[in-house]
Fold:
Amino acid sequence: MLQLSETQAAPVFMTANPYQPHMARIVRIYRMVEDNYVFTLRFLDDQLASAFSYRPGQFMMLSVPGAGEAPISISSSPSRPGILELCVRRVGRVTNALYRLPNNSVVGLRGPYGNGFPVETMTGNDLLIVAGGLGMAPLRSLMWYALDNRDDFRNVTLMYGVKSPAQMLFREELASLVGRDDMQCLLTVDSDPTGTWKHHIALLPKLFDYATITPATTYAAVCGPPVVYKFVLQRLLELGFSKDRILMSLERRMKCGVGKCNHCSVGYKLTCLHGPIFTYWDAINLPEMI
Amino acid sequence: MKVLRLPKERLDLFASVLQQFGEVHAPVEQNGKYAFRALSRWSDARLDYPRTILPPKKYFVPPKDTLFQYKEGLGYVPADLAADRRIILFGLHSCDIYGLNILDQVFSGKYDDPYYQARRKNVAIIGVDCIPDEHCFCHSMRADFVDKGFDLFFQDLGDRYLVMVGTALGDDMVLATGSLFEPVTPEDLAEYKQRSSAKRKAFKLHVEIRDLPEIFELEYDSSLWKQVGDRCLSCGACSMVCPTCYCFDVADDVDLGARSGSRSRTWDSCLFSTHAMVAGGENFREGRASRVKFRYYHKQRGFVAEYGRPSCVGCGRCISACPVNIDISQVISQLRGIENATA
Structure:
């Protein structure tokens, strides 16, 4: 059975104080969709900036001075070091304050936290990434990790669905992957009021009709709103996926990120330490998980 | 373990020697209840108290704990921990020492908590034994005796104490008194065993914890949780008085001018309505019943999975603090389907 890594050593660049934020500069703000920007950050300390590494699926605690701290998943890939890309929805006190900051502002970062995707275990398998809505934010890290380490994986498939073209995260970047011969990139919208959408117009689960999936040798990584979990998980089970080959990234309230404050507790697991990546089997066995 | 005896009339002398090791704190009476306080004189100490309002966790995880000062250009500067004074905490019951041993596990591990650890190093622990009252069930939680987590432990033998020396610091305290402490006699040991056995029989409240994790799994959808949730006021009193409740919230305060400020953590409770609410408003435990259930589930089920034992130590504070008389021992009895129990 798949065991997600729960006991990794603390990162080497962590200070003795796990709550210590390290200052980082916002080097670029990219307006993705309404209330969803990508912030590119670089640690002020050059040594830290180049030594910093993480796993796809891990998250950071982001501090906006005076506003507080919030957990944000990493959208960039560790295969592209030096900078961190955080896709941030403007939704709470910290993220609202972040949106008000001028260009080149300095914020605090600590991490990376959480288990991340078990990429070593997934190596040698097919990879199916299924994202709905904002679920692409953490899964983009895994996608670029797989493409940058293409020999580690067999077939790589991305299925991504949003309500309308304007709501698609990383739209241009993902559109440029359609037609690549080393992966299958399937993009869909529920409807297209603009009339300019060149890809699929259908609900996300419909994309399974366009891909050939071999469940026994595939790891599926799923992230999205509850409705996505409901229908995508059902589809994966129909295809014959084992429940520990389905990996999900979960969101919870977090105040510490290091397993102390207990806000992210689900059942007897802590999302920050034992997650945020859980197998579907974990999810079934932990109450209140989805 | 080094074991000694101290005639009771010499306790005052010992207390005066203790002052050279730090500020002595002990339970003092406060409007008919008891609280750990700095002593202005030793005679204020009440070593025969039933339980304090707040557990000793307040010394290690203060209700409000400043973690960082923020200054523009300097970033987050950690609060100075070395400035904390040395304290001798006199009079902890075994359940409270056990509670601290449990907090030790939470605040260490992969991510050591430097704020907690610094205070733990600065506070010496002297335990005293006790007689259970109607809310005590520490024997059920295997917390009625401790073998670690104290520098000294005083067992009452009537006109003398049997004193267990737990650490080198405890030994230093003993040695600093000269010849105040004496070697134990066979009569002391016999008396201790007799009293220890009598204490075991004095408990009025019993909670069976064997197979409790399984019962919790099986009764996850029990209607009992709704009944308890309907009564619960979500006041969080049980969390505040619990020796092993450690949930905290973190918030930033901004100074005037907004160029500097501080980051602090404060006690929180999983019974508060926003405990599991994420930005955007989604709340994973919206109903009171689900929050009450979570608290029980975490203490009696989740902690067993993570640390090998429940985090409850049976001190009885949640029973005496609940304004609507929710009683953990009765909730567990009802969950087990034992008759004549009313939650």
Remarks:
- The first strand of chain A starts at residue 22 and ends at 33.
